[in-house]
Amino acid sequence: MREAEQLFKRHFGYTPAHDVRAPGRLELLGNHTDYNEGLVLSLAIDKYLGIASAPRTDGKIKIISSAFPGREIFWSSEFKKNPAAPWADHIKGALDQLRKRGVHFTGFNAAIHSTIPIGAGLGSSAALEVATALTVRALHPFSLGETGATPPPKRNARGELPPLTADEKIRFARLCHAAESQFVGVNCGLLDPISSLFGKAWHVMSIDCRFYSVETTPLLGEAIIVCESGVKRELVAGRYNELRRLCESAARALGAKSLRSVDAKFLAANRSRLNEREYQCAYHVVGEIQRVVAAERALREEDLRQLGQYLFQSHESSRDFLQNSCSELDLLVELARAHPGCHGARLTGGGFGGATINLVAYHQAGNFMEHMASQYEQRTGRKLAPVVCQIVDGAA
Ligand code: GLA
């Protein structure tokens, strides 16, 4: 039995009716490109957020989480933030968006358990939103059309709902994104929910954030290792939103719909139309989108050394131009680069703390992790527990 189910049973005293889970994600390449309509390479990883649930008849929603004390109780007709339980905002935001799309649901009990570290840049918020939307789908089946809820799909002989279609996954991702930007207040892109929904075991997703298409390419035989810096920055949302604002004002000043439409030559020729920070952010995003195109080719040709070089270059660009790194992340990348088994390393996710992703030759993974842990502790006094991640299927 999964942990969320066990937690449900312990807390509510009976067996839950449904159990869904959504994986975290790792951005392999493409830092802050998603909200610029750019390209990203991403993976769903074997860190999950699970929700076990069962319906109630009184219209109340009762939620407990293994990560936070107490429980959150509210009516299924009203979603208000509770400053004492900000973790529940992601759930309320998703429920609010479901309502806005005409999805019918009433009260339920739910228990949440997650192995995705919070605040490490591994997509824990999106996994919670995705799992919430799938929980409601399990409790009160519906389809999500362009304009909102439509009649539910037929269950199979075992009473199961069919998996979401690709179009529906995109609509679910948009819903989760709206929850995050409108309810929680982080003006992020669609990378995290798309990755959690579209994940494919052993494959890298290439996400095109202008056309919302996802393609997959196998990545076999190398270890993906996450190093969590242990730095959790406060006010990250404000700094993230500020980078987005700079990118958008840069695009506007260049007369472009988004930075996706700008190439390096055009940017250089029109530099005088931007202030220094706008230029730096645009320089990063334009270069990063090009790197993703090149990295995809390296991946298809199984040239992992070359792919790794793009990871290092990406980190340097984030650090110097976007300026969303910090000394601990820089140190992690520097230490990784010094190890012969490491193909590439970079900060992953929003930045300002969080984690690095490392592409390492499989047979050197153990040695790499020891090297990173001992060196990082020596240099910073902080403990480091590198984790090997498997690439897994998306939410279900
Ligand atoms: C966070 C956001 C994503 C994306 C990354 C940076 O993870 O949630 O939408 O912008 O940062 O690439």
Structure notes:
With 396 residues, this protein is an alpha+beta fold. It folds into 2 domains: 2-215, 2-Layer Sandwich (Ribosomal Protein S5, domain 2), CATH 3.30.230; 220-389, Alpha-Beta Plaits. 40% of the residues lie in helices and 23% in strands. The protein is built from 11 helices and 13 strands. The protein has helices at residues 3-12, 89-100, 124-139, 166-184, 191-198, 236-253, 264-269, 276-300, 304-322, 327-337, 365-380, and strands at residues 18-29, 39-55, 60-65, 68-75, 108-114, 143-145, 148-150, 203-208, 213-218, 222-228, 342-348, 355-361, 387-389. The strands form 3 sheets. Strands 1, 2, 3, 4, 5, 8 and 9 form a 7-stranded mixed beta sheet that branches. A 4-stranded antiparallel beta sheet has the order 11-12-10-13. A hairpin with a 6-residue loop joins strand 11 (342-348) and strand 12 (355-361). The longest helix is centred in the C-terminal third of the chain and has 25 residues, at 276-300. Alpha-D-galactopyranose (GLA) is lined by residues 27, 31-32, 34-35, 121, 188-189, 191-192, 349-350. Alpha-D-galactopyranose is lined by residues 27, 31-32, 34-35, 121, 188-189, 191-192, 349-350.
Strand elements, count: 13
Mind telling me the CATH class of the largest domain? Alpha Beta
* Beta-strand percent range: 15-25%
Could you estimate the helical fraction of the residues in percent? 40-55%
Average pLDDT for all residues: 96
| Distance between the amino and carboxyl termini | 16 Å
CATH second-level architecture of the largest domain: 2-Layer Sandwich
